[in-house]
User: What shape does this take?
Amino acid sequence: SRVPGRARARARARGGVRPCAAARSSGGRYGLTGAYTEGEEDAMSDQVERLRRLLPPGVDVPLLVWRTPTLTRAPAKALVRSMLHLKRVLPGADLAALVERCPGLLDGSEEVDERALFRLRALLPGIDVDSIACAEPALCVHASGDAAGAVDVAANLKQLEAKGFPAEQLPRLIAARPQMLLRPYMFEASSLRHSSGTGLAAASAAPPAPGAP
Assistant: This one.
């Protein structure tokens, strides 16, 4: 019998799902249907199942393979090292969501800027920075070796303050809207002042302090 046939039987026995089958079950949204020959599908199935075992539960592995095909050739040890590193530097992050947004963190083409994380934690005390980094990875993730592309968090905070956002309330506002720190030019204090839950409305309505004019 042909080797690909035996490979398919082994995959079925393990409960494996071929990437093209996964694409069919989801409407072929990843464009994998019919993309491989029979033998290539069997080899890809083994690689996808290997990634499923190595990556956090909930990761859409067919999506990762479609976006970053090189992951199927990444050594298992390298993938494990990458995941352990992410758990160390971002212990509170949703790593499944993070690697789906930034698959390059797995193959080394992208990296977490630990200095940027340190600055975020220093500038936003008491805030869950790991969740902010996961929601807006560009705040601390850039192409490997391209530290020049890091976001100037301190400058963006100053820009928000200059637009009328109270400095003492900025950490909480940014926790609710992490994109403020990435694109401060899109936000105005006057518009958020009338939004419920921001704290700005309450601040504007608070009575003046004793002795204030």
Remarks:
- The chain has 14 helices and two strands.
- The two ends are 92 Å apart (CA to CA).
